[in-house]
Design goal:
Structural class of chain B: mainly alpha
Number of helices of chain B: 8
Order of helices and strands of chain B: HEHHHHHHH
Strand content of chain B: under 5%
Helix content of chain B: 55-70%
Shape of chain A: globular
Number of domains of chain B: 2
Number of strands of chain B: 1
Helix content of chain A: 55-70%
Radius of gyration of chain B: 28 Å
Structural class of chain A: mainly alpha
Radius of gyration of chain A: 22 Å
Number of domains of chain A: 1
Number of helices of chain A: 11
Shape of chain B: extended
CATH superfamily of chain A: Cytochrome Bc1 Complex, Chain C
Largest sheet of chain B: none
Order of helices and strands of chain A: HHHEHHHHHHHH
Number of strands of chain A: 1
CATH topology of chain A: Cytochrome Bc1 Complex, Chain C
CATH class of chain A: Mainly Alpha
Oligomer: heterodimer
Distance between the termini of chain A: 46 Å
Chain lengths: 240, 252
């Protein structure tokens, strides 16, 4: 068994994939972090204080996980959903009644989205009450505020897609709030909805924002956010 | 001797100052290896555990409760009440009490600007990385939270019983009744804890704690009122006692 493992991990193919040996020694444990695109967002060494569950409550990782989970369930939903006024609602009904695990898929996406908003808000409160925004982490706090706004935007644009009474009137109420801005308000509303009221144009735009624009920006900013944690010296728990 | 000469370019100096770091360094550079462990594999393991735990939680919720789906959207039939998604219900609740430009635009804009300004108002490093790190922070947080709950609930109930906007409609110009008076009331209510803290020779951090707690808890209170306690006609009811069988929980 050991020789088989050796044969595989010593092979040219394996070594072309992974540019480090078994991570059971300091050198390879450093290399595994710096040569892997997912791990390189993390520091090579972490302070034990920053791993304490009662410090961070894991809320940042929970939010990130929910984003990944929503991306997966969202892509699966895209296989069935058609963003037109005629077909969106029947699609959702068919998804729930005819597609295997369709209802479960939609539930996972819906509740995951609400949980992500909640987790992001709690994460912000955690960072505030632990003073983790203090220098040198000011910029990362701003990235976090932007991520919170984008999370709300992602949830809000997704809210319209089922095209039922709940979504239609929620978006009607929500976008009318934007229109109260005296200078740009009606323009913003018009750009969002593509017309005077919620209709096919709004559905098209919300769909594009929901599945592409906002998730792409969130993906970039989450990467920046986590990478910046490392660059700013790890979690603020290290400061003490 | 031969070795040293290999590095020399005229002179005996074998070292140089590369950079002087002013203030506290921003990285782990000065901290040494104390109390640190390799991130691999412990961080990876913790992340996988959190992901698995959240998957289980999410799966249980998704198996237990179905996502709501009402009838096909109909622009001609308004739902009663017509509510925004739950996280905007705090704003929609505010809309009931003041001019929409104040409630829907000015207050959220100020809230976001305040959040962005937080690390620039409090730019000390003391107390970073500790829960409630400033001396009186826990007390300020608790008292402000308590104050916010009482004051916001009282404001909603009072303004619901004696709506300033309506009572003053005939007496004063619209801008005074709709914007200036409710705006002033809100400003005073929100600023009061911070002012009290400020009077007691507080640090920037302590004033921020009062302001942030006020914003955070008020947002929660208004969201809960708007989401759970507003029924048909956007009137106040007890969540379990809504007319026409309306259940606010179906709005998630």
């Amino acid at each position: 068994m050991a020789s088989l493992t050796n044969t595989i991990t010593q092979s040219r193919v394996w070594r072309s994939f992974f540019r480090h040996g078994m991570p059971n020694n300091p050198l390879d444990r450093s290399l595994v972090m710096t040569t892997n695109i997912f791990f390189h967002l993390h520091p090579v060494k972490v302070n034990l204080k920053s791993l304490k569950a009662t410090y961070s409550l894991g809320l940042g990782i929970i939010t990130t996980f929910l984003f990944v989970s929503l991306s997966v369930s969202g892509i699966l939903l895209m296989f069935y959903y058609v963003p037109t006024v005629e077909r969106a609602y029947p699609n959702i009904v068919a998804l729930q009644t005819q597609v295997p695990f369709g209802q479960l898929l939609r539930n996972l996406h819906r509740w995951g989205a609400h949980l992500m908003v909640l987790a992001a808000v709690l994460h912000m409160a955690r960072v505030f009450y632990t003073g983790a925004y203090k220098p040198p982490r000011e910029f990362n706090w701003i990235v976090g505020v932007l991520l919170l706004i984008l999370t709300l935007g992602a949830s809000f644009t997704g809210y319209l897609l089922p095209w039922d009474q709940l979504s239609f009137w929620a978006i009607t109420v929500g976008t009318s709030i934007a229109s109260y801005e005296p200078v740009m308000g009606s323009t913003v509303k018009k750009i969002l909805l593509g017309g005077p009221e919620v209709g096919q144009e709004a559905l098209t735009r919300f769909y594009a924002l929901h599945i592409m624009v906002i998730p792409a920006i969130i993906f970039l900013l989450i990467s920046l956010h986590i990478w910046r944690v490392r660059k700013d010296g790890g979690l603020a728990a290290n400061e003490n | 001797m031969a070795n040293i000469q290999a590095f020399e370019k005229g002179g005996t100096k074998t070292y140089s100052i590369v950079e002087i770091v002013r203030g506290a360094p921003t990285t782990m550079a000065d901290k040494g290896p104390d109390n640190t462990v390799f991130a691999f594999p412990i961080v990876a393991i913790l992340e996988v555990l959190i992901a698995l735990g959240m998957s289980v939680v999410l799966m249980f919720i998704a198996l237990g409760k179905n996502a709501p789906l009402e009838e096909l959207a109909n622009p001609l039939v308004t739902t009663d009440p017509a509510k925004a998604p739950w996280y905007f219900m705090g704003l929609q609740e505010l809309l009931e009490h003041m001019h929409p430009t104040i409630a829907g635009v000015l207050i959220p804009t100020l809230a976001v600007l305040f959040l962005i300004a937080v690390p620039y108002i409090d730019n000390t490093r003391a107390g970073a990385g500790k829960w409630f790190g400033a001396p009186r922070e826990k007390r300020i947080t608790l008292l402000t939270a308590l104050y916010a709950v009482i004051v916001m609930v009282a404001y909603v109930l009072l303004d619901n019983a004696f709506p300033v906007r309506e009572l003053l409609r005939a007496a004063v110009p619209a801008i005074v009744a709709q914007s200036i008076i409710p705006g002033l009331i809100m400003t005073i209510l929100a600023a009061l804890p911070a002012l009290i803290v400020w009077r007691s020779r507080a640090s920037a951090r302590e004033i921020l704690v009062a302001l942030f707690t006020m914003l955070f808890v008020s947002a929660i209170v208004l969201t809960v009122i708007g989401f759970l306690f507003r029924g048909p006609g956007f009137k106040l009811y007890l969540p379990w006692d809504m007319p026409h069988g309306y259940n606010p929980l179906n709005n998630f």
